[in-house]
Amino acid sequence: xxxxxxxxxxxxxxxxxxxxxxxxxxxxxxxxxxxxxxxxxxxxxxxxxxxxxxxxxxxxxxxxxxxxxxxxxxxxxxxxxxxxxxxxxxxxxxxxxxxxxxxxxxxxxxxxxxxxxxxxxxxxxxxxxxxxxxxxxxxxxxxxxxxxxxxxxxxxxxxxxxxxxxxxxxxxxxxxxxxxxxxxxxxxxxxxxxxxxxxxxxxxxxxxxxxxxxxxxxxxxxxxxxxxxxxxxxxxxxxxxxxxxxxxxxxxxxxxxxxx
Length: 260
Description:
This protein is mostly beta strands. It is 0% helix and 52% strand. It has strands at residues 9-10, 13-19, 23-28, 34-38, 43-46, 52-56, 67-72, 75-80, 85-89, 95-100, 109-114, 120-124, 129-133, 139-142, 158-162, 165-170, 174-178, 184-188, 194-200, 203-207, 212-216, 221-226, 234-240, 243-248, 253-258.
């Protein structure tokens, strides 16, 4: 599908600020807050101005943070993949719960995210099932075994719950779309993209080493943009509204505004 992209347009951006803290990873919420994973495995919450709001500092117990999910800014999920553990934080990054997935016989979860009803979606790679669990880890619903659905089973590295649909992204197989019962609805052949995001049901972004891509499923329109002379200086690029968050290779987070 990427071969159908139009000639790249220029995406004009203007640098707003640079956070010079040693940032290893980050995510944002819909309120404009940023959640920064530092070199010491701390999670710091800062507002849109870069002011510190809170710190989650219990960093030694579960090893390395694998991902942070801020779909619901009142319920932040910090996932420790090596320990199969999800820490649930409140808006001030205080611990409000912990889920040991191994106790629920979920031994190998490749991706998690908050569900529309404030539970947690988990993809169980060992059983090849999509599962929804509550804050205690109890399995509420689960899909059929993906080996019965797919000739080649996907291994998603990201999930998004948006507008009544669940999206699973496997860079080698594309963006898979499911209903809330685990029924397969679609597969967008957006292959080998980095930092794929499902903003809403008609706005999907991603990038490769040179370009930023925007896909509109309702019109099947794929657009490509050139925003930076050398996009290779960034380790991660995410959109949030009209802002572009770019993590540099030297661990600084730069925030750009898209100029129309």
